[in-house]
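Q: I have 127 residues here and want to know how they pack in 3D. Can you give me a structure?
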Amino acid sequence: MKRLAAATAVGFLVAGFTATAKADEFLGSYVARISDEDHFASDGYRLDGAAQMVRQDRANYHKFHRRDRDDERDAWFRGNDDRARLERMLQRPGAMSGSTRNAIVRGEPLIQVDVYTRSVRVTVLER
């Protein structure tokens, strides 16, 4: 009886991990140029983090209609609450590599943002 209970518990754990992994489904991607304008908040102060800059890029695109030539539309980060969620996801481990963060903070790279139901992943396409 104890073996059956243990096997059942293991089965539920495996099923739970599988469901969790599948729950983060790919929704789509967009490309954006993180320009100098994206390095500054709407009220003019300089941003210091890559997550903040990617969020500001989406605010500039959707709210302020200040778009870089390379910026593409996205369907996920139109509102302020959505952009706040984007920033939180960008701060999670695995969302961006250290070199991607540095490229964003120190330059004006072209990035691709892959959007999933529960996470995002950013890669640099061009430095």
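Q: Anything worth noting?
A: The beta strands are 26-33, 110-116, 120-126. The helical segments are 2-23, 50-62, 80-90, 98-106.
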